[in-house]
Amino acid sequence: MSVTIYEIAERAGVSSSTVARILRGDVKESYRRSAETAERIRHIAKEMGYRPNLRARAFSRGRTHGIGLLYTDDAWIFEGMNTEVVSSLVRALQKSKYHLVFAPIDASGAWEEIVLGGQIDGGVVFQSLPAEVLSAMQKHELPLVLLGDNSDPTISQVVVDDTAGAYAATKHLLGLGHKRILFFVHQTVKPHCSIAERLAGYRAAIDATGAERYECVRMSEEDVIDILVRGRERPTGIVCYSNLEATLIVHAMWQYGVSIPADLSVIGFNDLFATRYMTPPLTTVGFDAAKIGEYGARLVLKDIGTPIDARQAIEMAVKPKLIVRGSTGPAPVRARMATG
Amino acid sequence: MSVTIYEIAERAGVSSSTVARILRGDVKESYRRSAETAERIRHIAKEMGYRPNLRARAFSRGRTHGIGLLYTDDAWIFEGMNTEVVSSLVRALQKSKYHLVFAPIDASGAWEEIVLGGQIDGGVVFQSLPAEVLSAMQKHELPLVLLGDNSDPTISQVVVDDTAGAYAATKHLLGLGHKRILFFVHQTVKPHCSIAERLAGYRAAIDATGAERYECVRMSEEDVIDILVRGRERPTGIVCYSNLEATLIVHAMWQYGVSIPADLSVIGFNDLFATRYMTPPLTTVGFDAAKIGEYGARLVLKDIGTPIDARQAIEMAVKPKLIVRGSTGPAPVRARMATG
DNA sequence: TTGAAAGCGCTAACAG
DNA sequence: CTGTTAGCGCTTTCAA
């Protein structure tokens, strides 16, 4: 059907291995004669429209050049910044002639086909994986990289310095004169290392000034809203775990007639398109998602072909930065009037 | 390294083909004796931890069981409802032991490796593809399916009945007493068949009542905002091409002090999480994204292995439905006062 | 640098 | 139903 190295070999009057080697660039071409035949072979190949059969190559080499995007939760890989991470990852892999394969992990066990059947040479993950998947990967010596998660120090990972991000966010509010700053993680947020890290960043900034902490971790929006609109000593600033909380809060404050940023300053996490068009535009902590993809690709590819005991888990970090927009401003001079 | 059918064959005292056939379920097992050996072989296979080598199978069969997710624009596959389409597609393919592969199409020409190298058995697309990619797919007899696009009638496709959706949206506003209803497509919207279809639905509804059309196709938000806040005969309702327009408009109206829905009713397109938390929650046209993935999978898989001239382009349609939330209400009794 | 030859693990056509 | 026998197209020793 399609052209093979044998047909080219015949046409060129050389052996198939020579063709394969030359087309693969596996030959130094130091002698003049060999350089000439090499040129001739490349010419014939092009003329005949030769394409290496990747299935044959995968079989022969024992490598598919596929990297699995392993995930247990659909939403996660499409959530927030992760789409950008994925798309940069795809591009980075592509440069090394690798492709990314969707590998959903669920009860059906279909993942075994992909992982154990040798459909991929390595994998990347956003969340930590079920133990059985992890051990299957290990048993097959498939390298794995964690993206934006540090739950397993024995695995290479690229992380965002969330502590620094939350620290900067909180510091920003403190710099604007805010004394009572709340930190909010919604109750529906999935477990993730960033929760603890952002909280740590918040604490570090708060504690440095001797201000009081208002930690609302894993709470409902109603409870937090209550804190924000009732009582005498209400927070005047809020650092949200993500844009979900920020969206909920902004929405609620609008309903309660609390003005942002005049009465309350709000900071979100992650620089998404939508937050630029919120009312008002959201001050948030962003990071360069493309870097994560690049680093991730580098880390998986590095370990492919490396004997498993010669590998070492490496961590690469990406620094976030604060993006100041309209949702933060100077602390109100005095406490607002109670509305309820 | 890993177990092969030969080792099993030897252990079981049968030929390798017998093992392969039985493990593959290619044998009826009608005789008692054959049923027994079949059982024995399966037992041995399990005991030895046998896994068919998918690379070998792909090579031998000339099929990788991979479907390419072809895209020229990163943003598109992660945009709006498409993430849900993709994730349902992955799941649907998985049921048939197929996997989805990211296949970005760009100037680097890396897509040729994937398409021409035989890394995939078929493809799906959101946008219509560059001609060269299309013809490459055709030449290699790889089936292709368009998702939510009908730009090429010779290709199988699953589409959303956008005309019906826009019709329902407009009808909803008319039913609320609105007489002046604007249709807005932002200038940055990428060319897509849905633009014309949604416009057609809008027109059909408007024309049926003899009302006047206010078509703002490919305009900037400033111009549309101008129309909405100035002049005597201002529209009281607006049907947006997507959530982008809806977001921009809601944001702008808030700045101008125009109340939604009291002064202006707004309808968006696509039922995204974020729109449920807008202020007010957005009335929008939604559809079942999972259906698109399912249908899409069915359509590509159907044509794999089918001789190219026995194939026929099939179109499957998904019906949208109007989701009424807070951004639409009865038409204001009289025209608002001019603000500028 | 080149050629010959032996796989890689599975499928499939053909006899039996 | 089962076994035999060729492949599938490329890679990779091993000699030359």
Largest binding interface between chains: A-B, 47 and 47 residues
CATH superfamily of the largest domain in chain A: Response regulator
Q: What structural class do helix, strand and pairing data of chain A support?
A: alpha/beta
Strand fraction of chain A equals 15-25%
Strands in their spatial order, largest beta sheet of chain A: 2-1-3-4-5-11
CATH fold name of the largest domain in chain A: Rossmann fold
In whole angstroms, the N-to-C terminal distance of chain A is 78 Å
- Total separate domains of chain A: 3
- Please give the number of β-strands of chain A: 12
Q: State the CATH architecture of the largest domain in chain A.
A: 3-Layer(aba) Sandwich
Count of helix runs of chain A:
14
How confident overall, as mean pLDDT of chain A? Answer: 91
What about the largest sheet of chain A?
A: 6 strands, parallel
